[in-house]
Amino acid sequence: MGGLPPLVREPALKVPESTVSFVAMINSDKPSTVLPSMLPSVLPAVRALSARLAGWRARPRSAARPEPRPVPADEELPEACRDGRHPRQIDIPFRDSPPDSAERGRLRTQGRFLARQDDWETLARGLREADIERAATLGGTPVARLLAEGAHSDAVESALAAVGRNDPTAARASLFALRDAIGHVERDPWLALVPALAHLAVARGWAGRPGAPEPGALRRDARAQHLEAAQRLVARFDPLECDSPALAAVRCALLDLEPRPEARVIDDYEDLIDLDPACPEHMRALGRDLRPSRFGNWDRLDHEARRTAGRTADLWGSGGYAWVWFDALASGEAGAFAAVDGELFAEALHDILARRPDQHMANQLAAFCGLSLSGAAAPRSAQARIAGCFGWIVHNHLREIHPDLWARARPIPGSADAGERLRRGKSRALSALAEHFAHQLRLGRQVRFSEAGIALTPTPCSSCTLAPCSALAYPRRDQRDEDTPCLT
């Protein structure tokens, strides 16, 4: 008959023995008497049975509502959801193609189309306008960079294939062909931006993934050659004279070539952030380059985070402090949490979401606190304080899941296609939510997210069967931090 789904049987309802005997007594044909001494032991059991039956009657039976997929077995899960049941009790929408992701894809496609048509004049005009107007996607990615990435995508794909074969000559040939096809890179700074960003992308390919073994001499030399080629392309153009944050970002990415990069890193990034203070990616890049493994130390990073927060306060409040520390904390390098101010970081997260309360930002910060910083943390430590912000971000702001942001919050070992990344992102988000709501899930409640907030069903507490417990009302907008949890 074509594979009908198997019948789903409701689990057997376990009824206390005292309740069974009481029900049997009152249903018996023989007259019986309920003694007053029996009521204290019988009535609690009857109330519990009544509450459970009411919960079953309130359970929705419609098949139209899609259930979130259970967490895959191969993902490392918290204890609260290893049995595969609890994630099904979390009802939250997923957006596999959120607005920011769709916009980034559209802009890259537009840049690639113009390059394939050899319409470099139109591309140069689009790059210049986007850069000068500081155009960005919903998630804050500069439009000029996305157009340039699309324009050089064919050449970079060919060059990275040569990197995989350890063929530096073929990799350089692909990018030199791109430069020859563009032309006029000596006169137009925005056309020079396209092959310069291509060389930076291939240089990252030669460097390898974070945590990989140290590259050999061939790979180090090949990386240096691409960095030098990018520098030659943009050296004649001054970012401040061109009013170009895109060119300033390339200059910051080339600090490795400076004889004393630790002396230049602050000035170069200060120019970049002052040119485009609304872009958090520039502040995050500053924090990455001020780590001890790069050109700074933790005290210097914290000092510059405070300075950056002051210079960008009109746009972000104290949010600049969190942006500078963002990737430095996520890197897991030793000593970072001993230097960061946990209270100021938490306040910065509040200021960021007060100014950017969209779902992209809510997902990015929730994934950072609930996934990137997850793990054992000493009580009252900066790590515990920052990771604990996951609660109020979820309750007050998160209303849907963007799996790509959760996938990016922690590197996925090896290569993963788009489908695998989305699957991992969904799994990670459900795992973090199941861990956070573990107490409610163990009580058999379902957590439902909507635009109005978070609802728990069934809502009544055992101590107040006629009215829902006020501690279960989410979100509590009069509090800045996580609500006191309901202990029932």
Would you mind describing this structure in some detail?
- The protein is mainly alpha-helical.
- About 55% of the residues lie in helices and about 5% in strands.
- Strand 4 (about 460) and strand 5 form a beta hairpin.
- It is globular, with a radius of gyration of 28 Å.
List the helices and strands and how they pair.
Elements: H1 17-27, H2 39-58, E1 90-91, H3 99-116, H4 120-132, H5 143-151, H6 153-164, H7 168-182, H8 189-207, H9 217-234, H10 239-242, H11 245-253, H12 261-275, H13 280-289, H14 298-311, H15 313-316, H16 319-330, H17 336-339, H18 342-355, H19 359-372, H20 382-387, H21 390-396, H22 403-408, H23 418-436, H24 438-442, E2 446-450, E3 453-457, E4 460-461, E5 464-468
Parallel strand pairs: 1-2
Antiparallel strand pairs: 2-3, 4-5
Helix pairs in contact: 3-5, 4-5, 5-8, 6-7, 6-8, 7-8, 8-9, 8-11, 11-12, 12-13, 13-16, 14-16, 16-18
Descriptive key words:
488 residues, globular, 57% helix, two-stranded antiparallel sheet, disordered N terminus, mainly alpha, 4% strand, 24 helices, three-stranded mixed β-sheet, disordered C terminus
| Overall SS class | mainly alpha
Largest sheet: 3 strands, mixed
Mean pLDDT: 82
Count the E strands: 5
Shape: globular
Q: How do the strands of the widest beta sheet line up side by side?
A: 1-2-3
Provide the succession of SSEs.
HHEHHHHHHHHHHHHHHHHHHHHHHEEEE
Rg estimate, integer Å: 28 Å
Looking at how many chains there are and whether they match, the oligomeric state comes to single chain
Number of helices: 24
Strand content: under 5%
The poorly predicted ranges are 1-46, 49-86, 462-488
Helix content: 55-70%
Straight-line N-to-C gap: 47 Å
